[in-house]
Write a structure and sequence with these properties.
The protein has 482 residues and is α/β, with parallel strands linked by helices. The protein contains 22 helices and 5 strands. The longest helix is centred in the middle third of the chain and has 22 residues, at 263-284. The termini are far apart. The model is unreliable at 475-482 (pLDDT under 50).
């Protein structure tokens, strides 16, 4: 007779309620064990000061406490998940291992290996949809193919959406089924024991913090569409890191958007649809991890920047364009960056400096607290005009125009560029244009206190039009700047 016990493997879903895999296991089995693995295959690729590990670590600790308060436990393992999960499942004698699906290529390979090892032991591998509302195969064109343009995808997504798609996966209806563990089996190693340095999280980690942040956003949701593009104000939800680690449920966010009619909630829901869209693209075309979604753009000839001068200036916020530099310095200091600024700095790297978008994507992957492969890759390919539904290659963000539009008084820029603190609002967008006496009065001499621009916008624009135009056979096609 098969065991009535199951094992739930937590990964990027660090909460104990509205959790698809946990709810399914509790409904089907008399006893449910829970486990988290500090996977050496993942952690081994990260720098010791990686901020995400701190967020992850604190969230795991809180999840363990929450499960213990319900009579269960979160078993903690270290090592290769491919080896440790089948081993634990065999020792516990469970009938099945449950997990929520992950769509990254490496995760798919890992899960296939786990499933194969479990099958050899006669243990079922059962996965559930949890980190997206709809998976790739659920939203298709009328011809049955995958979407490669967002607007029709969004239309189909919204038409398909039904109450059951965003209903809570209740894990509280089967009390007493969570299995305890020996205290030693639930000890979370310290960050130092894992080989990482403590780091202050700009976003408070954990389920409780995610719930508080979501509640705080509710009064601001109606104004989201009007306020979301201004980095100096608190106009966004700030929930991206919580979505990344699953300390909030995507379904809870959809429920909130649907319960709050208006332009703000519609715009916010659209951002959640973008998230599903990029996950679907990654699942459909995993080659985007290393190559352009549109293969012809892999032939682009990038600037060599052999000594890395321009790349370092971009990474360190020393380009001479204040809004670009402020965004990059905030990223380096906190792991955060406003979405409007992500588009701007990505466009600047690719279309002003002429550097390969993959270099920027890798820097974001190392720095971002909320890094998600699908969203990061999708955003970079959009900015580089190499991806699906990309920004047209002949449209180039003007960093000065963007600065005047989205930080008109320079509030955000002064926050991260103290050397510009005394520069008047009328001059802060182009400090290099200040007259010598104005520079002296502001304590900001170009090239001394703050860098002169590393490139000229008009010249960079001409080079980019030539670079892409040559590839497209369209010469120096000119279009209005954004």
């Amino acid at each position: 007779m098969r065991s009535s016990a199951a094992l739930v493997w937590f990964r990027r879903d660090l909460r104990d309620d509205d959790h698809a895999a946990l709810a399914a296991a509790l409904a089907a089995h008399e006893q449910v064990h829970c486990v988290f693995v500090f996977d050496s295959a993942i952690l081994g690729q990260l720098a010791p000061d990686n901020r995400r590990v701190g967020f992850l670590h604190a969230s795991v600790v809180e999840l363990g406490d929450a499960l213990a308060a319900r009579g269960g436990a979160l078993r903690i393992l270290r090592g290769s998940a491919e080896e440790e999960i089948p081993k634990l499942a065999h020792v516990l004698g469970v009938a099945a291992v449950y997990a929520n699906r992950d769509y990254e290529p490496a995760a798919i390979r890992r899960d296939a290996a786990v499933a194969e090892a479990l099958a050899a032991c006669g243990i079922d591998w059962r996965t559930r949809k949890d980190q997206v509302v709809f998976e790739l195969d659920e939203v298709r064109t009328r011809g049955g193919t995958a979407f490669s343009v967002f607007t029709p995808y969004k239309r189909a997504w919204l038409e398909k959406l039904a109450p059951e798609d965003h209903a809570s996966r209740d894990t509280r209806v089967h009390p007493g089924r969570l299995a305890p563990a020996e205290p030693a089996q639930a000890v979370v190693p310290t960050l130092a024991e894992l080989g990482f340095k403590p780091a202050d999280c700009a976003i408070e980690p954990g389920m409780a913090a995610g719930a508080r942040r979501l509640s705080a956003f509710v009064p601001r949701l109606r104004d989201y569409a009007a306020r979301r593009d201004f980095p100096a104000i608190d106009g966004t939800s700030g929930l991206s890191a919580h979505l990344r680690f699953g300390t909030v449920s995507i379904r809870a966010l959809v429920r909130l958007a649907l319960a709050t009619p208006g332009e703000g909630s519609a715009a916010w829901l659209s951002e959640l649809v973008w998230r599903d869209f990029y996950q679907a693209i990654l699942a459909w075309r995993p080659h985007v991890v290393t190559c352009a979604f549109k293969p012809q753009f892999d032939a682009l000839v990038w600037e060599p920047d052999a000594d890395g001068v321009y790349y370092r200036a971009w990474c360190e916020g020393r380009t001479g364009y204040p809004l670009v530099d402020a965004a990059m310095r905030e990223l380096a200091a906190s792991g955060l960056m406003h979405n409007r600024l992500r588009m701007l700095v990505a466009s600047f790297l690719v279309k002003h400096l002429g550097l390969d978008w993959r270099r920027g994507e890798a820097w974001f992957a190392a720095q971002l607290l909320d890094h998600d492969l699908a969203a990061n890759n999708g955003g970079w390919q959009w900015s580089a005009s190499t991806g699906c539904d990309a920004q047209p290659w002949f449209r180039i963000f003007n960093p000065v125009t963007q600065s005047r539009k989205f930080d008109p008084e320079g509030v955000y820029m002064r926050r991260w560029l103290p050397e510009l603190a005394r520069v008047p609002a009328a001059l802060i967008h182009e400090p290099w244009r200040m007259a010598p006496l104005e520079q002296q009065a502001a304590g900001c001499v170009a090239g001394r206190d703050y860098p002169s621009p590393v490139v000229n916008h008009d010249e960079a624009r001409r080079c980019t039009l030539a670079r892409y135009g040559a590839l497209k056979g369209e010469g120096r096609t000119v279009a209005p700047l954004k």
